[in-house]
Amino acid sequence: MKPKLPTEKELESSRDLDQRSSEEIVALIHAEDAKVCGAVEQVLPQIVEAVDVLVCALHGGGRWFNVGAGTSGRMGALDAAEIPPTFGLARHCVQAIIAGGSIALERAVEGAEDHPEDAKLALQTAGLQLGDAVVALSASGYTPFALGALEYAHSVGARCIAITCNPSSPLAEMAEIAIAPVVGPEVLAGSTRMKGGLAQKMVLHTLSTAVMIKLGRVDGNLLSHLMPNSKKLKERALDIVMHLTGTGENEARELLEQSNQLPAEAVARFRRKQSSTAPS
């Protein structure tokens, strides 16, 4: 019998979990979650490598695909979905593919993760090609769907990145860059939606935020390229324009009206005007 995967082992300190009080359960979960930050810190060099690869791919007109199953796939889909409204990047630039299709975002699709050919088909349909990048996610690093994604990515010359919690897994070995925070056994044995999911979320939001900053989608630490599609975001866009231009509310609103409510364009319009009127 082969040894259990790191993500499947039992946590000694939680063996009597079902006998504990609510306070003890919550405290133990919190204590284990606190370990994730340190695990992610250990893989910051690999995250930096991945940032540079993804910046290069997107800057060159390529696309970034997050591919995974279950919790990993949902994490990838969540991060990809937040890129357009947060950073104003076109929706096709960062995409997500989840085993079982969009229905798997709402509920489990049993057995979907076991079919590597489905990942290949999805990437074929999306037109994956040289210049694109695939980020395959799997806590165990053994998920066939994620492995199929990297295998196909290799075959077309796309860049291959893995996010897993098992550095000695096939997924990590297959990737050109493996981001593998070791979080240890879960409070509930094998339930990688817990520390495994938290680690993947931390890696993804660090990765995507750093990539967007390097692509110039941020001005200072402000979301200058956000899409103001709600009342809250319209007010934030106004604040951003006022801050970056030093104008008052009325002028900032006028700049936004002239720029289709896009703060980046409003700021650029203001700076062009300032430049054209500056003494030579």
What's this model, at a glance?
The protein is of the alpha/beta class and 280 residues long. It starts with 21 loop residues before the first helix and ends with a helix.
Explain how this protein is built.
The protein has 280 residues and is α/β, with parallel strands linked by helices. It has two domains: 12-214, 3-Layer(aba) Sandwich (Rossmann fold); 231-277. Helix content is 51%, strand content 8%. The protein contains ten helices and five strands; from the N terminus they run ααβαβαβαβαβαααα. The protein has helices at 22-41, 44-59, 70-87, 116-125, 144-156, 170-174, 195-214, 231-245, 249-258, 263-277, and strands at 64-68, 94-98, 133-137, 159-163, 177-179. A five-stranded parallel beta sheet has the order 2-1-3-4-5, with helices on both faces. Strand 3 (133-137), helix 5 and strand 4 form a beta-alpha-beta unit. Helix 1 crosses helix 7 and helix 2 (44-59) packs across helix 7. The longest helix is centred in the N-terminal third of the chain and has 20 residues, at 22-41. It is globular. The relative contact order is 0.14.
SSE diagram, text form:
Blueprint: H1 22-41, H2 44-59, E1 64-68, H3 70-87, E2 94-98, H4 116-125, E3 133-137, H5 144-156, E4 159-163, H6 170-174, E5 177-179, H7 195-214, H8 231-245, H9 249-258, H10 263-277
Parallel strand pairs: 1-2, 1-3, 3-4, 4-5
Helix pairs in contact: 1-7, 2-7, 3-7, 4-5, 8-9, 8-10, 9-10
